[in-house]
Every structure is written in structure tokens, then in C-alpha cells.
What we know:
Layout: E1 16-19, E2 22-23, E3 25-26, E4 33-35, E5 41-48, H1 52-57, H2 70-73, E6 77-85, E7 88-89, E8 92-93, E9 95-100, E10 103-104, E11 110-117, E12 125-132, E13 135-142, E14 147-153, E15 165-166, H3 169-172, E16 182-186, E17 205-209, E18 235-239, E19 258-262, E20 281-285, E21 303-305, H4 317-320, E22 326-328, E23 345-346, H5 350-356, H6 383-393, H7 399-405, E24 407-417, E25 427-428, E26 442-444, E27 451-453, E28 455-461, E29 477-482, H8 486-489, E30 500-505, E31 536-545, H9 571-584, E32 591-593, H10 604-612, E33 619-626, E34 638-644, H11 645-650, E35 657-661
Parallel strand pairs: 15-16, 16-17, 17-18, 18-19, 19-20, 20-21, 21-22, 22-23
Antiparallel strand pairs: 1-2, 1-14, 3-5, 4-5, 5-6, 6-11, 7-8, 9-10, 9-12, 12-13, 13-14, 24-31, 24-32, 25-28, 26-27, 28-29, 29-30, 32-33, 33-34, 34-35
Amino acid sequence: MSTTIFPSPPSDGKEMFKVGNLAWEMSSGEPCYRISEQGRLEFSFDARTPDLEKWEKVGLLGPHGMCQNEAWINDGKISITGSISGMRHDGKLEWDFEFLESKTVDANCRGSIKYSYGFAVQPAFRGTLTIRDGWIGLVWELKRFYEVRIWKKFDERALDWSNYRFASESELIGMPPEQVCHVELANPTFSELPGYFLGFSNLKSLAIEKRWYEENTLPLAMLPEDIGNWQRLETLRISGTNLREIPDGIGNLWCLSRLEISDSPITEFPPGMWRLPKLKDLRIEGTELVRIPETTELGALESLSIRRNRLTSLPDSLFAYSPIRKIEIDKNPWVSFPRCVASIENDLPHEEKSRLFDFAYEGADGKWTVPWDDSAFMNAGDPDLMGEVDEIIGENPHRDFLRSSVKRSVMFAHAEGDPYETLGMTRFGGMPDLPPDMDYPYFVRASGNKSYPYEFIGQIDCASIAHLQSYLPREGVLFFFFESQSSFERGIAEETPTHCKVIHLPSVENLATGKRFRLKEEDYECMYGGDEYEANKVVARVGNSAPSFYAWDANGYLLKDSGISIDEDEDVLDELDEIFSWKINTTKFDYAINHYVFTQHESPELQAALRLKGNPEDWTILLTVTSTGSFQWWDAGELFFVIHKSDLLRGDFSNVFVTIED
């Protein structure tokens, strides 16, 4: 039990804001508290010191640390803000909160305090917040400085409860039913929903959920048939319960737009639920659901998650009447799907997609592919390069697999700035040496009609590196353009996976210097400095590239024909990373072609296969651009252009996949 002594409101009934023993002038006007849109009580205490020079001398105020605006600080202002929930108990709005390092200590409430402006340093925080008897008070200990003591009048009647998230039954006691709009109960102990819940006529959201760390299933086993009376309910979330059925009344929730039922032994849902007119987001996960009715009329459904159930098929009507754009369907014993599912973004692993769908790649033009020789992409036939590999592998029992996995990669390193002396030479950054009759390429986003210039990434003189590899065109120039990082930051990348343009000109003749292109600063959406990337010459070399097995669970295709059984010895991959991958992949580069990527998720090749079909091993990285020089991809990430090997052999660069790994 806490031994904290909580302060009492001022005995003289006067508001105060004191730092040490000196009073500061408090801001007047609007109340310093409100219910936020996030459903918590937000508070803000603002004050100004009449003795700015004193506090600057002792180091409490000044142009350092958390200070946001020097002119504002020189006025001697400070502001302390925070938020809390779980403040009503047994019919009263009063509670004592203890804070340690800005977070509440009490398990029955949630809250935090942050001082936003005015302090020159950021000392550790410890203190208490009290709400009772018409007051809200904060006592705040600043280590190495002073105690801050604040008391303000608090009028509960000024609060608008329509956004508040009631987090316990105790908070609901004594609350006028019409003021209860949102209820979020974690680990409730009731087996039936209390009858007084049906009196919440303005209820908009209800959540009954098991906390992630709780082992036992919640005792809730029954919902009242009258839940259909919640005519304003928009969100219903239930998880980790003993519910085995949902009442028919759910079909009367005409305003319901989001429904989540998870980790409960429900076998089927009433027919009315599959006809809810405004349901946009449906999540049924971890239940005993075995079938969805053949007739569904969810005309507003956009997102569907039915992971971890017992479903074997889906009805055609689910997609015929619903504008579904994304589905999560993994971990079900699927037997078949409607054909349209293959074209909807989903979370099925590649192996499942290949089993259930016609997932063969049909070429960039959608008509045909040609056979290719995989040995051209590997290093097994080069004795000079494989000498290093053999020395590292030694007598490892997986020697044959490891040798066969090493790729023949072309790597580039910065040499010097490029003054555009030679047309068509390999250059990264700057502007492209396109023919004089070819305009600089622009693109239009799928969601709009405004055109934007591509960002020029680089150009490669194919003849200059023809002796290093046999999988690229032998002559001409490859030009690489990228839409913008903003295509990924704004989620636009979900619309289409090909946010780039790759052009191959078969000859270096009839080119014109890239210096002629002058784009406007406002044309660039996400470029550092609002200008093209700095132009650099590079030096090319060929080298070994070995796969990383760090993310083997996501990239199982890398172990194809390896003879390694993860079920028997998962640690073997950690060992192979240490004694093989890390020792092979020591060559530093700024750009690379046909190499492996270290990733914590799906490899770029697997991402390409998931979005554009085919097998991940049939795709290769056409170009990697690291965060180097003026190229910066988020937090030191890498930009990848990925192409299908058949398209590369055909010289068709119209379906190149692009992604960023951070």
C-alpha cells in the first residue's frame, strides 16, 4: 500500500501557483481542464514569474533544454500539461494520483505529466495530482530545484463527458446514463453484462477486453439480447471471453461501423450481423468460426480480418457486395477461395498463395515469360571469387548449400563528384543524360491528377560493367527514377507497387547532357535541400553476396533445398549467420546489383513476389541505393529496385518493384 501523503486544498480557498515559496501569476480565462478527444482528462497549468532575473540566475528558466521559443521564455512563462483517466470512483469525481518519472503509479488509473515550455533543464519528475472537493492540485518535486505547488478551482459541471472513456464499473456508478458514451473495460469480473448497461442510450463504443498479460479467460459468457437497443453504437470490441454465441439483437445495431470479436469460443454469428449496413471494419480472430453464410450483405465493409479461425472457404457474396480493400486471413485451414481474393491485399504467406491461387508470374506485359539460367546470378563458377568462400566455409556440413547460395554481385563505391564530362557514363545523383528529344519523366498519383517529376537516382553505363556480370544488357544506359519517399510515408505505396521508372536506351549515341534539366524547387516533395541529389562518379567491382538467415521465419524460401530442418535445430541458422554470412558480406558499397539484403522482415524479392506474383527466388535486386551522401532513406535505410529475371532477360523494365527498408 502506498505511504504517500497527499496534500489538501488551500485552507484559505485561494488558488495558487508557487515555485518554492514565491508565488507566480496564474493565467486566467478558460478552465485549465477538459475531456480530450482521446477520452482523458487533460489539464494545463500556465503561469508567469514576476522575477524573471532570479529564476534565470538559479538555472530554472533560460534558452536551453525544453525551451521552445526564446521570446516566449523571456516573458518568464512556464506551462505544465498532462492527462489522466480513471478518475471517477463510487459516484464521485475525486482521486489522488501519484506520479513517478511522469507516469502514474496507481494501477487503477492511467496518466502522465509533461512540462512543455519554459524550463531550462529537464529534471526528473515526482509528485502528486489531487482532484477533490472542487479542486485540482499538483505538487511537483523538481530534483535539485524547488517544489512546485499548484491549486485551481475545479467544476465538474464544466466537463463534456461525451468523449470520456470510462475504464471501470466503479467509474460508471452514479454517472447519469445519458452521459455515458464510451466504455472500455479491461479484465472485468462479471459473467453477464450488468443490466444497467442497457440504460446507456447514447453509448457509441463498448470494449470488454482481456489484458495481454492476463492468463485466465474472462468469465463473460453471455450478452443480453437487448444489445440491439444501443442504436448509436458505432464500435464493439470483445476479446478473451467465454462467449459461445452472439445474440440476434446485434443485427439491429444499424450504426455499427467497427466490430471486433477475438479469442472467444464462438462457432457462428447470427444472420443479421452479416447484413449490418454501416459495418466498415470487421475483425473475427481466434474463434471457432467454421463458416460464413453464403448470403452476406455488408455493403460498407472495407477491412476484414478473420485470422486464426477454422474457416476453409469464403462465400462469393462477401466480395460481391462489399468494397473490401484489405483482408487478413492467415492461420485458417483454407481449401479454396473466390478468385477475386487473389487481387485483394492480404496477409497469406507466399507458400499459401502459391497453393491456393494461380500465382505464376506472367511477365511484365502479362502475356509471357522466357526461361533463364540461374547460374548467371550466382558465383559458383568463378574460382577466384569462390576461393574466399571456400576458405570461410571450410568443412561445414552445409558446405554444398552455402556455396550454391552465394550471388555474383556488382558493387559501386563513390569516387568523386561528376562534372558531366562524359555523356552516358555511370553516375548516381544529378540529372540524366537523356536524348535531346526525350522529356524529363513525370508521374501522376493514382489518387489525383497533378503531375510530379520523378527523382533521378542514377544511370549505369552497361558496357562499362559488362565484364563483371552476364545478366544485365550488354550495351546502352540504364536510367533509374523514383517517385518519392512520400509515396511510402503517405501510404500511397499500397495503391501500386511500382513507384519507379527504369529506362534502358540500347545505345550511348545521341544523348544530351543532364545539365539542361532545371526543375523547380516546389517540384520536389521529399528531397533534402529541395534540389536534385548530388552527382557522383563511382568505381565498380564484382563481389560475393551471401544470404542472411536472421529473418528465416519470414524468408523461408532461402532455405529451399538446403537440407536444414529448423524444427530440429533452429540455432543452426544463428551459427551460419555468424560463421558464414557476416564473414562473406564485408565489402562496403554505396550501390549494388543482384545482392542479398539483411532485413528483419520479408526480403525485397519476397515483397515483389507477394505483390506481383511468382516465386521470390525468381526476382533479383536490380539496384540498391544505400543512405549515402545526399541519398537518405528514412533512418539510414536502403532503396531497392527489384525485377523478375525473365523481364531482365527480355530487356523489359516496365514492371520493376520498388521498396524502402529502414
